[in-house]
Amino acid sequence: MTVPKLFIRWVARLNLWSRLVLVLTAGFAMLFGVFSAVSLRVLDDSTQRILTERVVIAQFAARRYDELLTQAYYELDKATTFAAFDPAAPDLTNEKHMLAHAYGRLGSFSLGVVFLDARGRVVLAQPDAAQIIGADYSAFPFISQTMQTRERNISRPFLDSNSGKFAIAVTIPLFDRDGRLMAILSGWADLSSPLMMTAVEQARNLGETGHAELVDNQGMVIATTESDSQPLAPGEHLHFYLQMLNANREGVQDVPDEMSHHASEMHVMAFAPLTVTHWGVAVGGSESETFAPVRQLENSIFILGTISFAIIFLATLLGARLLVRPVKVLTRAAKQIATGDLQTPIQVVEGGEIGALAEAFEAMRVRLQKSLTEITAWSNELEMRVRERTQELETVNVELQREESERRRLLERVINVQEEERKRVARELHDETGQALTAVLMSLEEIETRLPATSHEQQNLARAQRLAENALSDLRVIIHGLRPTVLDDLGLVPAIRAFAEQHLAAHHVQVSVETQDWEARLPAPIETVLFRILQEAVNNIAR
Q: Is the same domain home to 451 and 386?
């Protein structure tokens, strides 16, 4: 038997209250399951929203750095439109003015702007620093890179020896009319300036563990909100930064703090790459704080759902019990009616369908009681009539039995008389007629001895002798048919065998009589009746 059939049979054996509880529990469990699925979807949406917010914050910070670096390029390019920046020119007034203008435009973002010749020597600088005029800056990686590649670049962080601050350099090459490298402009930016820190400082709004880092193409810190971290140091989540930088894509992941020497909580970090240079911004916080609203919402949903389900379930149990109680009353009343108790009224105060059912049961009880009273009266009357009729039948039966007994007695007497008459006739035929025929035969035999053997009388005598013998033989058959003496002398079986052989042998019918040994002979009347039955059967066979 399959499991569904076994379950159906098990449910069919439950009472009404258990079925109601089972069905309602299954319904509420399904409803709770749907509620849980929706809650999980809401929690997942909330989680995705938080992660998306982290990515958006990282994107916003990256766009801000793109704007700052783009502005630096723009100010340097704009300066070249108003001055030739030819190191060999006799008058560099315009160049000096444009350097001052660019420096002023960059504001606190800038540590200074430097004008160099094609060999990397300082021609002019802003702010004015006479001690560095003529200094050879070709050893700086970003200067030598521009001299070699003849392309603009943004440097990795370095320590500015003049200010003692960590800085980056935005460098562009300038070419003469023949396309040869003529000069270099390089603007140095302070990594600790408010403009550089504003973008990452927004991460502090993410909570107590909120932090952000601007990293270069090697995952080294350029700017950070962590007080214990310095520029040029590896980022807290170096492998994650390198993974995102190599893929050059945005993303968010749970990552460990690689700078901690102890097991620490995972951090949820969002990463967004810059478009101007191969840098990136990472924004995030601890996993527990990041998903605290989700955890709180999850706990609230779980507690509220559990309490609601418990209250509804208890209310369901109570409601089912209240609903089943009048049904139990009706069930007890039905059992009382089934046992024959029609005196106890059915009392159910509930209304609705159950009340209507109770009224119908009560009406049925009243009608059954009335019908039972009528049936009882009819039964008593019928019983009295049956008793009277039974007495009449008993009287008639006694009379019939008496008549039957008398009939049997008379029939037995008739049979006995008939058999006695047969016996008497057979005896008389045997004793009188048989002896007379025997005497006739003896007389004929004596006469035969006296007559000549060839005389005509001898032939007549022989014919008379044959007639007498035939008559004697027929007489014996008649005597045997009337009452065979062997029946009286030897019993039923020898009489049947002798009669059958005597009457059927002439017809060439083989006779076989099979019997069981009897300890005693049957009563004479029974033997006589059985013999007559078999005698008739043999006669029918012979015919």
A: yes
State yes or no: pLDDT of 396 exceeds 70.
Answer: yes
Residue 108 has pLDDT above 60, yes or no: no
Q: Which residue has the higher pLDDT, 525 or 389?
A: 389
User: Rounded to an integer, what distance in angstroms lies between the CA atom of residue 103 and that of residue 296?
Assistant: 50
Residue type for position 532? R
The conformation of residue 433, written as its DSSP 8-state character, comes to I
φ, ψ for residue 80 (rounded to 5)?
-70, -15
Whether residues 182 and 97 share a domain: the answer is yes
Written as six digits, the tokens of 14 are 């439950």
Distance separating alpha carbons of residues 51 and 353, to the nearest angstrom: 57
Domain co-membership, 377 together with 479: yes
Higher-pLDDT residue of 50, 24: 50
d(CA 413, CA 177): 171
Residue 233 located in a structural domain? no
Across 48-70, average pLDDT? 87
Mean pLDDT, rounded, of the chain: 79
Instruction: Give the pLDDT score at 311.
Output: 84
Within a domain: 50: no
CB neighbourhood size of 444 (10 A): 18
With 0.70 as the threshold, say if the pTM is over it.
no
Based on the domain organization, do 445 and 386 belong to the same domain?
yes
Please tell me the distance from the alpha carbon of residue 514 to that of residue 401, in angstroms, as a whole number: 38
pLDDT of residue 490: 67
Which structural domain range is residue 497 located in?
487-543
Last residue of a domain, one of 445, 466, 483: 483
Closest by CA to 232, choosing from 192, 185, 261, is: 192
3-state secondary structure of 325: helix
**502 and 417 fall within a common domain:** no
Give the torsion sign (CA, 453, 456, 462, 468).
negative
d(CA 227, CA 200): 13
Among 160, 190, 220, where does a domain finish?
Answer: 190
Q: pLDDT tens digits, residue range 144-187?
A: 999 999 999 999 888 888 778 888 899 999 999 899 999 999 99
Residue 500 in any domain: the answer is: yes
**Percent of the chain residues topping a pLDDT of 70:** 83
**308 CA to centre of own chain:** 26
Identity at 406, one-letter amino acid code: E
pLDDT of residue 170: 93
Based on the fold, state whether residues 433 and 530 are members of the same structural domain: no
Number of domains observed in the structure of the chain? 3
Same domain, 448 and 503: no
* Domain match, 406 and 509 both: no
Using CA atoms, how far residue 472 sits from 208, 436, 439, in Å, is: 153, 9, 11
User: Which CATH number is 110's domain given?
Assistant: 3.30.450.20
- For 229-241, what is each residue's pLDDT tens digit? 677 788 888 888 8
- Whole-number pLDDT of residue 489: 63
What one-character-per-residue DSSP string does 205-249 give?
GG-TT-EEEEE-TTSBEEEES-TT--TTSBPTTHHHHHHHHHHT-
70 burial (CB, 10 Å; 0-12 / 13-18 / 19+) is middle
